[in-house]
Amino acid sequence: MPAAPGHVALSSPLLGGNEWRYVKECLDTGWVSSAGPFVDRFERAIADRLGGHAVAVSTGTAALHLALLVAGVEPDDEVLMPALTFIAPANAVRYVGAWPVFFDVDHEYWQLDPQRLADFMSRECDWRDGRLTNRRTGRRIRAVLPVDLLGHPCDLDAILDLAHSREISVIEDATEALGAQYKQRPVGSRADIACLSFNGNKIITSGGGGMIVTGRDDWAARARYLSTQAKDDPTEYVHGAVGYNYRLTNLQAALGVAQLELLDKYVEIKRLHARAYAEGLAGAPGITPMREAPWAVSTFWLYTVLIDADRRGLSSRAILRRLGERGIQSRPLWEPLNRSAAMAGCQPVETPVADRIAASALSLPSSVNLTPAEQSRVIEAVAS
Ligand SMILES: Cc1ncc(COP(=O)(O)O)c(C=O)c1O
């Protein structure tokens, strides 16, 4: 939501380019629904950036759901993923009747820890009938689902090596990291299949929307088919599978195309905000800013700090409340999903790093249009 005057929002959209013009074009031509030139343009523009095929869908969650289906994840399979993330990717795993197995994150960059994955695969799994099997549950492991948390890329090479050597797919949740780079290549371009989101709090928005990106022709075709009610005949109502109504509308795609034209500029601005936060909070005791790996270019989607309650004398939640009293919106990170009632029945795991981060993290205002004066207000309020 746009912020009320005097309030500093956590992450509000900036419609700073051709949005009005492109949306007006939809209205003038009557192409407002789930087909139209902007849907094609949006898909082409994403495919030009990331390579492979792009299939536009209604949300990032829908993208994840379809990605799991086309990657062959079936009921009672398992999908390995980080415990620390927004819940959407785990929900998508449950939509297909599969089970997430949660892993702790690394303490430096807060991403899915490949070392823990490797340990699990070698110590707790067997190779049975040509499939990697979790010894404890007896279930087949079908995919790894890393999330590029808060706009910072996960260590994808290590994850791809581990997964591919065991014939399992990598479905990357890049919803928070469009515009980021991993070893000088765009995030979303290297996994077997990647998912993007364009909801209102993302770095660019189409109002609501998502995208599937994959180099595999058959997976892209299947995702497109499933996203349009699995229609087998252009005229007759003949359906070869249970499909979904997941297509993006032309109106949303028009917004998306306009926003995508601004992405590189927006990433640059967010990186400047991140630098200003890091410098402004550098001397403040008990505040640890988020970091960037040497192989990464992060978008710093939500700039997040860890608050040491003992050294600061206030917990992250107390600071959140105090910032709120001063008209500054901030937000904690997510409850680690192994602790979520929504994920009851998943294999119990210990996640000390995710627990510590979740208890102490605070995301600070990170909108592209955050002004220097607003950012100074936030820094002063957090540091004081
Ligand atoms: C990591 C992650 N995955 C998936 C989603 C879901 O995207 P959407 O809201 O477009 O369904 C989000 C954000 O909303 C997210 O942060």
Q: Tell me how many strands there are.
A: 15
- Spatial order of the strands in the main sheet? 1-11-10-7-6-2-3
Largest sheet: 7 strands, mixed
Q: Report the oligomer.
A: single chain
Uncertain segments of ≥5 residues (pLDDT<50)? none
Global mean pLDDT? 96
SSE ordering: HHEHEHEHEEEHEEEEEHHHEEEHHHEH
Head-to-tail CA distance between termini: 28 Å
The number of helices is 13
Helix coverage percent: 25-40%
- Class from helix and strand fractions: alpha/beta
| SS strand fraction | 15-25%
- Which overall shape is indicated by the principal axes computed on the Cα atoms? globular
Describe the structure.
With 384 residues, this protein is α/β, with parallel strands linked by helices. The protein has 13 helices and 15 strands. Strands 1-11-10-7-6-2-3 form a 7-stranded mixed sheet, with helices on both faces. It has a 3-stranded antiparallel sheet with strand order 9-8-13, with no helix packed on it. Helix 6 (156-164) links the parallel strand 6 (141-144) and strand 7 (169-173). Helix 3 (60-70) crosses helix 4 and helix 3 (60-70) crosses helix 7. Bound molecules: pyridoxal-5'-phosphate (PLP). Pyridoxal-5'-phosphate is lined by residues 59-61, 85-86, 88-89, 147, 173, 175-176, 197, 199, 210.
